[in-house]
Amino acid sequence: MKKVKKSLRAPEPEPSDSEDDLNPESHKKSLENMKKTDPDFYSFLEENDEDLLNFDVESENDASDVENEDDESIHKPAPLQGDSDESDYEDESAKPVKGKITLKMVQQWQSELQSEGKIKLASLTNVIKAFNAAMLRVTSEDGTSDGEYKVEGSSVFNAVIQMCVLYLPSAIKKYLGLEQSGKDPQKCKHFVKLKGPLLAYLNDLLKLLGGVTSENILTVLLKHLHQMSIYVACFNRISKQALKKLIILWSTGEETVRVLAFLCILRITRNQQSNLLDLVLKAMYMTYVKNCKFVSPSTWPGINFMRRSLVEMFTLDLNVSYQHVFLYIRQLAIHLRNAIVVQKIENRQAVYNWQFINSVHLWADLLASTSNKPQLQPLVYPLVMVITNTIKLVPTHQYYPLRFHCVDILINLSKESNTFIPILPFLVEVLTAYDFNKKHKKASMKPLDFSCILRLAKSQLTENGFKDSVIERLYALLLEYTANESHSIAFPDIMLLAIVQIKQFLKTCSVSNYTKKMRQLLEKIEENSKFIEKERSKVTFSLNDNKMITAWESSIRTKGTPLLTFFESWNKVNKIQKRKKITKNDELAGELPVIKRPKISEEQVSKVRKEKNGPMVLFPSDSEDESNNFKIDDENEPPAKVKKVKKTKTLKKKKLDRKVSMDDEEDSFVNKDDIVQDFSVTDW
Fold first, then answer.
1. Chain segment 251-303, per-residue pLDDT in tens
2. Residue 640 DSSP label
3. Would 440 disulfide with which of 21, 290, 464, 535, CB 3.0-4.6 Å?
4. Burial letters for 57-90: b for 16+ Cβ neighbours within 10 Å, e otherwise?
C-alpha cells in the first residue's frame, strides 16, 4: 500500500486542449506505457479495476450510442408490461392493432346492447367473444389469447366484465323474446343461433366464479348467475358443474354468498326439476352432514341456514323427497339399533354426535313444515321413536345436554304437527334421578351453556354451575311444553303425573333457588288445569266426536289460557336477558384487568445482592420479553454447591439442573419427559 500511495502522488500530465487526449486509441497507448513506467500502480488497477484496463474502442462507440438512447428514453417512456395504470391510457393517434379491444369498442357494444330496437346476433357474439378473451387473459399462463379479440390493460378488462354483468342478460332476453312471455328459452326460434356462444359464455362464467375469492366480487357474479339461471338449465353438463360449485359456496361461504348461492341452486333446480332434483337433494344433504360435525356459537348460524334451506328444497316435490327421507331416517335407526344391541363405545359414538343430532333436527323440521300435507306424515312415528330411544340409550347425568336437545326437537315437532308426543317423562325424570341437595366440589366462574355441547365432563358435574343450568333448562322446557298443551281438553289428565313428581321434588330439595322456580311452575300448571276443567264442564258433545274436540281446542287457543299468556311474557323477558348477557360478555372481554408489576432498577438489585450475599433469581413479569435473563448473579461469583441427596434419579436430575445456566437449561428442557406436548388431532 505504501508503494501505491507513492504512485498516487506522482505528478499528473498537463491537460491539453487537443482532441488527441480524448481519442480512445491514444488513451489505450498511455495505459500500456503505464505498465512500464509504474508497474505497481498497474498491478493495483488489475486487482481492483480490471474494466478500466480492458478498454476497447468499440465499447466507447457503444457507450456513446447507449448515452444517445438514454437521452431519447427520457422523453419517450418505454411500454410497461402487466396491468399498470399507464397501460390503460390509449394513444388516439396510434394505429389500431388487429383484434385489440379498446374502450371505444366496449362503449359501442354497450350502446348496441342498450338499444331500444332489435338486438343483432353479431353484437351478442362480439360481447361474448370479448368476455372469452378477458377470461383467457386471466387463466392462460402467458396472459394472451388465440381468439379473435385480445384484452390488454385492467381498465379494458373491467369494462368488458362490467358490460357483460350489467347489460348482457337483458339483451339476451330481448333477442330471444322472453321479456313478456315467460316460456322456456329452448322453445324460442332464435335460441339455436345463440346456443353455441351462450354455452361458451356460461363455461367462462363458471371458470371466473371458481377462481374468485373476494366476497364482494362473488356477490356480483352470483347475482349475475341468478339472472342467467334460466339459460344454465338448458344445458345438462353446465347445470351439474354450476350446482357443484354453488353447493360448495352454499355450505362454506359468507352469509351473503350463501344466500345467493342457495337462490341460484333453487332457480336452476326448479327449471330442470325432473332431472336434477334427486341429485341436488342427495348432494346437499351429504354436504350438510359433513359441515355440521362441529358445533360452536360461530358455526350455529351457518348450520341453521343450511337446515332451513334444505327443508325448502325437500318441499319442492314431496313424492320425490319421501324416498330420500325414508332412506335417511332408516339409516339413523340402523345406527341406533346397532348401538342398543352391541354395547360398544364405537357404536354409541355413531349415535351420540352432532351429525346424528343435526340430521334428526333436519327431518323433524321437514315433517313439522309439511304437517298439512299427507305425503311425509307416515314418517313422524319412526322419527319420534328414533329420538326417544336416543335419549334412553345412555340416560346418565353426563348426557343431559343431549337429552335437552332431543326434547327441544320433540317439542317443536309436537307443536307444529299438532301431534301428541309423551315428552314429560324425559323431563320430570331428571328431577327424581339427580340429587340437587349434593354440595358442589368446585365453584364455576360462569354458568354452563348447553346449546353447543352434547356431553359433560366428569369435572363439570361437580361444579355449582351444572345444577343451576339443569334447573334453568328444565324450567324453560317444561314451561314451553305445558304452554303448547295448555289448550288441550286432556290437559289436567296429562299433567297429573308431572304434578305429583314436581311436588315430590319440592319436598326433598332444600335449595331455595331451585324450589322457588319449580313451585312457580307448579302453581301455573295447577291454575291452567282448573281453567280447563271449568271450561270442560260446559261441554255438551261426546268425547268421541273428534271434530268438535278440535273446534273446542282451537277456540280455547284463540281465547287464551293462563299458562300460555305467562309463557309469552316470560319468553320476551328471557330473550332480552340473553341478549344482555351476550353484550355484557363482549364488553367485559374488552376490559380485562392487567396486572402491573413494578420494575426493579439496577440499584435495588445491587442492594439486595449485598444484603443476601448470594445469587438471586428473579421471575419475569408478563410484560417482559422471553429473551430477558431470568437469573442474575455476579460473573466472578462461583456457582453454589449442590448437596448430594441419595433418593431417586429424578431428584438428582433436578439438583444438577440448578448448576446449568439459562441458555443450557433451555436446551435440556427439550429432552425432558414432563414437558407439555403440543395438541394433536387425536386428542380431540
1. 998 899 999 999 999 999 998 888 999 999 999 999 999 999 999 988 999 99
2. P
3. 464
4. eeeeeeeeeeeeeeeeeeeeeeeeeebeeebbee
Q: pTM of the full predicted structure?
A: 0.70
**All cell numbers assigned to 663:** 441458555
Domain assignments of the chain as residue spans, ordered by start: 2-74, 642-679
Residue of 301, 418, 287, 298 whose CA lies nearest to 359: 287
Which pLDDT score, from 0 to 100, does residue 210 have? Answer: 86
Q: How far apart are CA 5 and CA 9, in angstroms?
A: 6
| 465 in Cβ contact with 507 (< 8 Å) | no
Residue 463 has pLDDT above 60, yes or no: yes
Query: Which helix (DSSP H) or strand (DSSP E) does residue 632 occupy?
Result: strand 631-632
What are 298-347's pLDDT values in tens digits?
Answer: 899 999 999 999 999 999 999 999 999 999 999 999 999 999 999 889 99
Give dist(CA 285, CA 274) in Å, integer. 18
d(CA 105, CA 96): 11
Question: Which helix H or strand E contains 631, and what residues bound it?
Answer: strand 631-632
How many angstroms separate the CA atoms of 283 and 265, rounded?
Answer: 12
110-141 residue pLDDT tens? 888 888 888 888 888 889 988 888 888 777 65
pLDDT digits (tens, 9 = 90+) for 360-415: 999 999 999 999 899 999 999 999 999 999 999 999 999 999 999 999 999 999 99
Sign of CA dihedral 83, 89, 91, 92: positive
Strands (E), 293-424: none
Assess contact for 176 and 199: CB atoms under 8 A: no
Residue 14 contacts residue 51 (beta carbons within 8 Å): no
What whole-number distance in Å separates Cα of residue 290 and Cα of residue 381?
Answer: 26
CA distance 532 to 177: 64
Q: CA 230 to CA 184: how far, in whole Å?
A: 8
- How many angstroms from the chain centroid is the CA of residue 160? 32
The three-state DSSP-derived secondary structure of 224-264 is HHHHCHHHHCCCHHHHHHHHHHHHHHHHHCCHHHHHHHHHH
Cα 38–chain centre separation: 77
User: Distance between CA atoms of 56 and 193, rounded to whole angstroms?
Assistant: 69
The residue to which cell 444484603 is assigned: 611
Measured distance CA(553)–CA(114) in Å, rounded: 61
Spatial neighbors of 382 by CB under 8 A, at least 6 apart, are 329, 330, 333
Say which residue the cell 363405545 belongs to: 345
The phi, psi pair for 31, rounded to 5°, reads -70, -35
Residue 243: predicted pLDDT: 95
Q: Which amino acid is at 673?
A: D
DSSP string, 615-665: -EE-PPPTTS-TTS-SEE--SSSPPPP-----S-HHHHHHHHHTTS-HHHH
Residue written as cell 388487429?
98
Average pLDDT, the chain: 77
Using only C-alpha atoms, the chain has a radius of gyration, in whole angstroms, of: 41
The yes-or-no verdict on residue 591 having pLDDT over 50 is no
